Amino acid sequence: MVQLSPWLWAVILVVGVFAAHWGAEQLSHPIKKLRRQLGLTAVAGGALVGIAAAGSEIGINVTSAYRGVSDIGLGMMLGSNIVSIPLIVTIAYVASRKRDLGGETEGQDTRRDGGQGSTSSGGQTATHGRHRQENLLRIQKEAVTVLILPYLGILGLVAVLTLPESGRGLQPIDGWIMGAAYLAYLGQAFFRGRSESEDVQWTKKELGLAGAGLVVLASGAYGIVLSTENIVAALGISRLVGGLFVTAIVTAIPEMFATWSVVRSGQVTAGTTSVIGDNAVTMTVAFVPLALVTVPIEDFQLYWVNLLFVALMPAVYAGLTHWGATEHGFTHWQVLLFDAFYFLYIGVMALSVLNLF
Length: 357
Description:
Elements: H1 6-38, H2 42-53, H3 55-67, H4 70-95, H5 107-112, H6 121-133, E1 136-138, H7 142-162, H8 172-192, H9 204-235, H10 239-264, H11 268-282, H12 287-293, H13 300-323, E2 329-331, H14 332-353
Antiparallel strand pairs: 1-2
Helix pairs in contact: 1-2, 1-9, 1-10, 2-7, 2-8, 2-11, 3-4, 3-9, 3-12, 4-10, 4-11, 4-13, 4-14, 7-8, 7-11, 7-13, 8-12, 9-10, 10-11, 13-14
Membrane topology: Multi-pass membrane protein
GO cellular component, one term: membrane
Organism: Haloarcula mannanilytica
C-alpha cells in the first residue's frame, strides 16, 4: 500500500466519492429519459434509475473484488443500505418544509395514484401547504408495493443464500441468482408502473457525457477502495468495519445533496423513494462482483446483525409510510423515530464489535 498520511487518504476518499457520484449522475440522465420514453411512473422508474444511482456502489464492489479486498465492498454494501434510508427520509422531510417547491410537478404521478391530487399548480400548492401544516412528508402509496415489498423479498433471498452454514458466504452461484433477482425486480416494476410514454430527444453531448461519466465513476471507485484500504490499516480496524462505517457513510454524502435538490424541485416521492431502488440495485447487481470472486463470512455475528438491520430499515419505512398517518408518508415524529432506529443500530454495533453480547 502507498504510504501517505491517513488525513490525505481521507481527502482522496472524499474526492473519489464525489467523482464516482458525478460519473453516476452523467449516466442517470439518459436512463431518466429512457424511463419517460418507456412510460414509467416516478416510483416504478426508481427501479430503473437505481442502476445509475447505485453506480458508485457497483464500481466500489468491482474494484474491491479486483484488488482482493472484498470485505470493504461487503461492508459498504451492508452499511450503505442501513444508513441511507433514515438519512434520505430525514433530508427529504426537511427539504419538503419549503413553502413553495419547484416547478417539477408530481401532479401526474398523483393522478396515477388513484385520482388523488391535482395536476394544476394551484391545486398542488394548496395540497403542499396542507402537508406542511400537517408536518407530513407525503409519499405515493404505490411506493410500498412496487418498491419496498419486492426489496424485502430480495433481502430474504440474500439471507437464504448467505446465512445457512452449508453455504455461508457469497459464492458465484449466488451472484447469478441475485442478478436474476434484479431482472425480476425490474420487470415487476415495469409491469405495474406503466403509463403513457413520451417522445424524447437523444443528443450526442449527453451520450458523450455518459461515456465520460463511466470513466470518472471507475476512477472514483478505485480511489475510494484504495483510500479505505489504507485508512483501515492506519486505524487498525477490520476491512469489514471500515466498509460499514467509513466507505458506506461517506458514499451517502452525495446522495444527500441529490435528494435535497430533487425534493426542492417538487419531486417529493421520487426524491424520497429513489433510495429504495438504489438499495435494491446494491443488494443485487453490486452483489454480483463480490460473489463471483467468493467472499467467506469470517465474522458471522457481525454479518447477521447488519443484515438484520438492512431488512429492518425498509420494514420500518413501509410500516410508517402505510400505517402511521391518514395519508401515506411520514410525520415529523415518525422521521425522528426512524432516526432513532439508526442510533439503535450504532449501539448494537458497538456492543457487537466489543463482543459484549
